Amino acid sequence: MTAILEFDPAGAESIRSALGPDAIVVPSLRELREHLDVDLFEDCVVLGPSVDQIDADALAEDLRITRPTLGVVLVRQRIDTAVLSDALRAGIREVVQERDLSGIANAVRHIKEVASRQRSRLGEGGGEGPRERRARLVTVFSAKGGCGKTTLATNLAALLATSNRGTVALVDLDLSFGDVGIALQLFPTHTLADAVAMGIDLDEPGLKSLLTPHRSGLQALVAPLEPSSAETITTELVVRVLDLLAEEFDYVVIDTPPALDDHVLAAFDKSDLVAVMATLDIPALKNLKLTLETLELISFPRERLAVVLNRADSKVGLAIGEVEKTLKAPIVAQIPSSRDVPASTNRGVPLTTDDPKNPVSVAIRQFMEQVVVPSEKDAIPTEMRSDRRGGRRWKR
Ligand SMILES: Nc1ncnc2c1ncn2[C@@H]1O[C@H](COP(=O)(O)OP(=O)(O)OP(=O)(O)O)[C@@H](O)[C@H]1O
Ligand SMILES: [Mg+2]
């Protein structure tokens, strides 16, 4: 897609029609920045003649650092050496005269070709080596249903997205009965089922078309609407989706079904942190213990596991210390019970962003700050980010 910023409606329309249906007009610099924050795959911006040169240069300079594959085309009424040298210094790729509509279209086409070559080169691992993985992947799991996985995953993702921690994707791997879409009141046009047609050739633009934005800023990849579609989604496809998301986002939060299936194990393998949840009842704790034992059997690094107790204040005669002793694992987070949780889910609004002072929100924020977000000293140097298999320690 191409975003056009031009304040004169007639001028904006003539540029848009020269660029075809893949171009959109944004009405202000602020909205252009918001669009770029949400559309992480945007590769071209056209700044029309009414955009102030200083603003254009400042935006281009900023994008050169934050979005190096994105190209800026500057359209001017008059082009002189001062305009050209300022543009060059700011990193603007092309400057075109406003009446030269085919020149504008050619500049955009050229930028897109370069962006596509950059992407495929990086994707192939050629030249510059494998693409940097930047995301922290967090999987939320419990072997027993109804322990609060979707509640934690949606609330954690929304909180990360609204607390300036970077870009966030939320993936619903509960392929048959996922309810992330409902919990966030999303109206998805596409789901993970649409990735099947693209197979393992799925690329960034293909993935982008499957995401549904939520107003918190997170991008959701929702589960298929038809439970039967789940069967068509292979583990290889899930791995491809997670790898692509890990390249594009700062955080990827994964909700799961209550079963240790191949998709879930693949997500574990890719995850920096697996939050294993239980409630204070014997069936949930038994399943949690079995999960921990299974993970030990497959040599899953213990430091990547975090046991989270939901409804931890329930008075059911089980002491937390006893539970930890039985599990042989510390409980790193305790989320209390609150009627506000189902009420917020029914409204389709995450409690963490709707009512930050609610004890449930406070507990999830603490979990985010103390466990999910790595401390400075644990931050992985950029050059090591593509290899996460080694056990990395998280701040506890
Ligand atoms: N801390 C809490 N206090 C009160 N209600 C809660 C709490 N956490 C979750 N719930 C409620 O419990 C129910 C199950 O929660 P949720 O859907 O998050 O569980 P789940 O593990 O995703 O379930 P499933 O295994 O079916 O996917 C929901 O109605 C939710 O609103
Ligand atoms: Mg769920």
Structural features:
42% helix; alpha/beta; 5-stranded parallel beta sheet; Rossmann fold; elongated; 396 residues; disordered C terminus
Structure, explained:
With 396 residues, the protein is of the alpha/beta class. The chain folds into two domains: 2-124, Rossmann fold (3-Layer(aba) Sandwich), CATH 3.40.50; 136-384, Rossmann fold (3-Layer(aba) Sandwich), CATH 3.40.50. Helix content is 42%, strand content 15%. The chain contains 15 helices and 13 strands. The protein has helices at residues 9-19, 29-38, 53-66, 81-90, 101-124, 149-162, 180-183, 204-208, 235-248, 262-270, 282-297, 320-327, 340-347, 351-354, 359-372; strands at residues 2-5, 23-26, 44-47, 71-76, 94-97, 136-141, 168-172, 212-213, 219-221, 251-255, 273-279, 305-310, 331-335. It has an eight-stranded mixed beta sheet, with helices on both faces. A five-stranded parallel beta sheet has the order 2-1-3-4-5, sandwiched between helices. Helix 3 (53-66) packs parallel to helix 4 (81-90), helix 6 (149-162) crosses helix 15 (359-372) and helix 9 runs parallel beside helix 10 (262-270). The longest helix has 24 residues, at 101-124. It starts with a strand and ends in a 24-residue tail after the last helix. The model is unreliable at 124-130 and 377-396 (pLDDT under 50). Adenosine-5'-triphosphate binds next to helix 6 and helix 13.
